[in-house]
Amino acid sequence: KKYQQQLAVLVLLTLMAIQGSANLQAQWSIKGEFSNLPQEELIEWVKAHTNKDAVFAGAMPTMASIKLSANRPIVNHPHYEDAGLRARTKIVYSMYSRKPVEEVKQGLLNLSVNYFILEDSWCTRRTRPGCSI
Prior knowledge:
By secondary structure, this protein is mostly helical. Helix content is 54%, strand content 5%. It contains 5 helices and 2 strands; from the N terminus they run ααβαααβ. The protein has a two-stranded parallel ribbon with strand order 1-2. The chain is elongated. The mean pLDDT is 87.
C-alpha cells in the first residue's frame, strides 16, 4: 500500500513537471518588448545633453525611467515612501496646477531642480487656460 502511494505521488509529480515544462516553453517562446519611443528619445536626450549631476523633477513614472536609464538624480521616486517624499512630490506636482508660474518655479528651485519634465498628457483642460490634474 505504501508503495502504491509513493508511485501515485511520483506519477502526479511527473505529470505536473511535464505540464510545467510545457508552460515554461510557451512563455519563453513569446517574443516582443515594451516600446515607448517618445520616452526612449527623452532618455537619450537627457544622457546626451545634461550633466550627470543635473537634478530632474516630473511625474513619478517618468522619473523612475530617468533614474534607471539615464542615472540622473531625481527629487521624487515612485518606489519610496515617506513624509519628505510626499512633500517634495506635492511641490513637483504643483507644475500641473493653476498656481502662478513664479510660485511653481520657486518651489522647484528650492528643491535644486535643474530640469523638470512637464507631461502635457497629464493636464486636464476645461474652460480655463492652464494645466490641472
